[in-house]
Design goal:
Blueprint (H helix, E strand, L loop, with lengths): L5 H9 L10 E2 L17 H4 L11 E4 L2 E5 L5 E4 L1 H10 L7 H4 L1 E2 L7 E2 L5 E9 L1 H5 L8 H22 L3 E9 L3 E10 L1 E7 L2 H4 L3 H4 L11 E7 L13 E2 L18 E6 L10 H29 L4 H30 L2 H17 L2 H7 L2 H14 L2 H11 L1 H15 L13 H16 L3 H17 L5 H4 L8 H7 L5 H7 L4 H6 L3 H42 L12 E6 L3 E4 L2 E3 L2 E3 H7 L10 H8 L15 E6 L11 E3 L5 E8 L17 E5 H11 L3 H6 L4
Antiparallel strand pairs: 1-14, 2-3, 2-7, 3-4, 4-11, 5-10, 6-10, 7-9, 8-9, 10-11, 11-12, 13-14, 13-19, 15-16, 17-18, 18-21, 19-20, 20-21
Helix pairs in contact: 3-10, 6-22, 9-10, 9-11, 9-13, 9-17, 13-22, 14-15, 14-17, 15-22
């Protein structure tokens, strides 16, 4: 791998941080972390090396999650919830893989994971100077954003033309300051290999989600395939298993309390460098909105599928996603209030403001910085009705179909690099596939209820939405709209991709017609968003500069879905007075928790094997039981789902899947006292796979006898 130039850049960016325990460190910074003192027995070069094969080569990105290659034949272990969409989309009332689980007895039995891709980081390079060179002083904030976007697209496109078969992406490390071009091996043929039933993979459901203690077997196996010549290719029966440069060896002995652990993965986005005004907006506006709307949507979907398994399957993937975000948002709200984070951040900013004001030059350059940032969020708060308008086209699947089809038609009239990112030639196939999957799960009666509620919410906002309310379908006309639209047909949606905006308008489809009327407003909101983004990027770039000067230190950049490392130890915690939660749960705890009523149902075979003490070689020597979950004080967020939990020798001892409820606040602030991550113990995953469901061929493939 060629990770040229960036190692020095990253080292400069994160050197002299205050707490080694906090941080989702860019992987090239591992040499500066003194992990040998923490318990790691591998050298930094064995974990990450820019010039030769290393442990990092065994880590991949699986859609929005992380995965690990655990065999030389492209076998990947990730979370059940990360594979959930693949399991759900292949399920039916006759082959209900969500309910019953799935097992491929051979390579030929493995089934396509629709809409999934696998990426392996190959190289990255600092391109900050190239990106920032397109900005000129006279640009408006919107022009600034568009110039940066177009430069990024041009650099990505050029990189992919130079490295055929690879995927290029530009990531912003510090807002408005630093940009990195990543190159990935890009695998399009991904297949489902093994998934436990939901009674294992989702044991405890949303009741236990974001909670500890946890007894969820949240793991599944997938496999990456390539063309016979090793190149990336769409699904074909002639494709062969991908051969990774390195795979992660499984440690069937697992870990114990106090052991060193390390996670490598692709964490999503954090906001630890954002201001008190941002946190206030999250606390007062966005998070409460998400909790309210998502709870309501989930209730409608649950009701719709209550008596019909076919409808429940259609809603299951989206409902799980909504529920995950809803509960995380509730945890974040609770954490913001309980830990008084807005006030704490404001106090720190008051000290920074005093520092700025203490010097004439600094005051002239940065004096209004915090006030200007706060002004953007105040504007967003004053226009909170925009959330309702945006959710017309996202909460309603029909409006999402219509908007995506029409927006694509408009955008694809433009030159490739001038289009919105989803509609560029390099991305459009993926956009089409995702839309096709959404059409498969479309249920008009439920969608009609959701759209009716969104229309009611917009109209209830009053004067500020009058201009768009006049363009909305009448609520009493929705029955006719849903009866007349043809966008529930996969064939029609597919054919629409080849039409111009004028041809789409001529279809006289009521859903498309509704979006055409609303489209000018959505363009206005898009431009407004780009303007705000441009302003905030510039202001936050300046904020990082002056904060570094004030604190005499640099910072770890916020997570941004790029390859990161975090480390810690298997460790319990005390979430409240007089309560201590130990860091390892057992199968016995799961059996005791099982009531026979969803979501606390276990397959009878598991209960029987526990009663017989049939644990095989996967028993914990001290607990005398199969360990199910482990808790550790690493620094994780969304995207770390599926990240390998590695021991001091770099062997796989578990798979990360969650955080404790108190740690949902990690996205905004990390604290050793309550920030804990949760993973499935590898011994439970192996016991379920081999001993319970008989997929011993997979254990053999992983070298576990």
């Amino acid at each position: 791998m060629k990770f040229s130039l960036l190692a020095a850049f990253i080292f400069a960016a994160v050197a002299n941080f205050v707490r080694a325990e906090e941080g989702m460190f860019p992987i090239s910074e591992i040499g500066g972390l003194s992990l040998a003192d923490k318990g790691l027995r591998l050298t930094a070069e064995e974990v990450f090396n820019a010039d030769q094969t290393c442990l990092v080569d065994g880590i991949c990105k699986v859609n929005g999650c992380t995965g690990s290659f655990v065999s030389p034949r492209g076998l990947i272990i990730t979370n059940h919830h990360c594979a959930y969409r693949a399991i759900q989309s292949s399920s039916s009332t006759t082959d209900d893989y969500l309910r019953d689980g799935f097992q491929a007895k051979s390579l030929g039995d493995e089934i396509p994971a629709k809409g999934y891709t696998v990426r392996i980081t190959e190289s990255f390079q600092d391109i900050s100077n190239q990106v920032l060179s397109v900005i000129t002083p006279e640009m408006s904030y919107m022009e600034r954003t568009k110039a940066i976007e177009q430069c990024q697209k041009e650099l990505e496109k050029a990189a992919e033309e130079k490295h055929v078969g690879q995927r290029a992406e530009v990531a912003e490390m510090f807002a408005g300051k630093t940009y990195v071009l990543f190159l990935y091996t890009y695998i399009k043929d991904v297949r489902l290999v093994f998934a436990p039933p939901a009674s294992v993979g989702n044991f405890g459901g949303e009741v236990d989600n974001w909670e500890w203690p946890r007894h969820t077997g949240d793991f599944s196996f997938m496999r990456a395939y390539v063309a016979p010549d090793g190149s990336t290719a769409e699904y074909s029966k002639d494709n062969v298993p991908y051969q990774p440069k390195r795979f992660i060896r499984v440690e069937p002995k697992g870990v114990d309390e106090g052991d060193f652990v390390m996670l490598i993965g692709y964490p999503g986005r954090t906001a630890r460098h954002k201001t008190a005004s941002f946190l206030k907006y999250e606390q007062n506006v966005r998070l409460p909105y998400v909790v309210d709307l998502y709870q309501w949507q989930i209730e409608q979907m649950q009701q719709a599928g209550k008596e019909d398994r076919a409808i429940a399957l259609k809603h299951s993937s989206r409902m799980k996603s909504l529920a995950n975000v809803e509960k995380r948002s509730r945890g974040q709200l609770k954490g913001l209030v309980r830990k008084n984070i807005v006030a704490t951040r404001a106090e720190a900013e008051a000290e920074l403001q005093s520092f700025i004001n203490s010097d004439d030059d600094r005051r002239e350059k940065y004096g209004a910085l915090l006030k200007d940032i706060a002004g953007v969020y105040a504007e967003m708060e004053a226009n909170r009705h925009e959330l309702d308008i945006e959710n017309i086209r996202s909460a309603s699947r029909l409006m999402y179909f219509a908007f995506t089809i029409y927006d694509a038609a408009v955008e694809r009239q433009k030159a490739d690099v001038e289009r919105e990112t989803p509609y560029m030639d390099r991305n459009f196939d993926l956009t089409r596939r995702r839309l096709a999957l959404a059409v498969e799960d479309y249920h008009p009666p439920t969608d009609r209820i959701i759209l009716q509620e969104m229309l009611r919410r917009v109209r209830a906002s009053g004067g500020k939405t009058q201009d768009i309310a006049d363009q909305l379908p009448a609520e009493d006309s929705l029955a006719e709209l849903y009866a007349a639209t043809s966008l529930g047909s996969a064939e029609v949606v597919q054919a629409c991709h080849d039409k111009t905006p004028e041809q789409l308008a001529a279809m006289d489809d009521p859903a498309i017609s509704a979006i055409i009327r609303l489209y000018p407003k959505y363009l206005e909101l898009r431009e407004q968003s780009k303007s705000r983004e441009g302003k905030l990027d510039q202001l936050y770039g300046e904020l990082v500069t002056v904060k570094q000067e004030f604190l005499k230190q640099n910072f770890v950049p916020d997570a941004n879905s790029t390859l990161r490392l975090t480390y810690g130890h298997v460790k319990g915690y005390s979430p409240e007075d007089a309560v201590y939660k130990s860091p390892i749960t057992t199968l016995g705890g799961a059996v005791a928790k099982a009531t026979g009523v969803a979501p606390f149902v276990l397959p009878p075979s598991i209960v029987e094997k526990h009663a017989q003490r049939d644990f095989g070689s996967f028993v914990h020597p001290k607990l005398k039981d199969v360990p199910t979950g482990i808790l550790y004080d690493t620094d994780t967020t969304g995207g770390n789902s599926g990240s390998p939990i590695l021991n001091h020798e770099g062997r796989l001892v578990g798979v990360n899947f969650d955080r404790a409820f108190e740690a949902t606040i990690n996205d905004f602030a990390w604290n050793e006292a309550y920030s804990r991550s949760i993973g499935v113990d590898i011994r439970y995953a192996l016991w379920i796979t081999g001993n319970v469901f008989g997929a011993n061929h997979l254990l053999k493939e992983m070298g576990v006898e």
